[in-house]
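WARN  no MSA supplied for this record, continuing single-sequence
INFO  ligand: S-adenosylmethionine
INFO  echoing inputs
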Amino acid sequence: MKMKILRSAVAWAFVAMVILTATVIQPADSYYWDTLFPFERVMDELALKRGQVVADIGCQEGFLTFDLAHRVGPNSIVYAVDIDPAVLAVVTTESERMQLRQIRVIHSDPKDPMLPAGELDVAIIANAYHEMRFPAEMLSATRRALRQRGQLAIIERDAEDGHPRDNYYELHKVPKPVVVREARKAGFTYIREVRPVRQGDFYFLIFKNL
Ligand SMILES: C[S@@+](CC[C@H](N)C(=O)[O-])C[C@H]1O[C@@H](n2cnc3c(N)ncnc32)[C@H](O)[C@@H]1O
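INFO  complex generated
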């Protein structure tokens, strides 16, 4: 009887562990990568090359970071930036496991990605802009981190325009015109929109620091 209870406890512990691992490691809401903007397509549209310096701002557990690191190669830098130390711990562990020494983790400030000035070729903010409490400060600081002609990519879920700005934080989405307005105000030049692979509620905008 005792053996049966023990076996059952072990089985339940295993199930709990599998569920926990899936919850921690899997992105909660990242269907947009697979169905709308596959990593390769995002990197191709940005013409990302070996040796380029890139930042994944709001990287979470690094869903995009590792692919970026493979694309730019070992003699480059991928800054993995987030305000949440718990997700960055996952990025650090995974980078070490995969020996991707080009990944540099930055535990940033909500107003500042804390990136070195004028170094980046590309900055990507994917499904994270809506979470930023200080979007104007974040965009200005990101622009300072870019080289001249460096690109900013924003991938975000679309929303209806015209709500008070703070509402978009609660809604977890930001209208395209709001992003374009705010990026222009921070000094970026709007270049173009990349169409998703199929119809969806996320958009992908490219700006430049001209
Ligand atoms: C939904 S996740 C995005 C995940 C990832 N970029 C992707 O698309 O797979 C949003 C992330 O943005 C981070 N974040 C929120 N505000 C931020 C800020 N001001 N600077 C940097 N990261 C921020 C959160 O901690 C969270 O990890």
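Residues 14-28 have pLDDT under 50 and may be disordered.
INFO  checksum written, moving to next record
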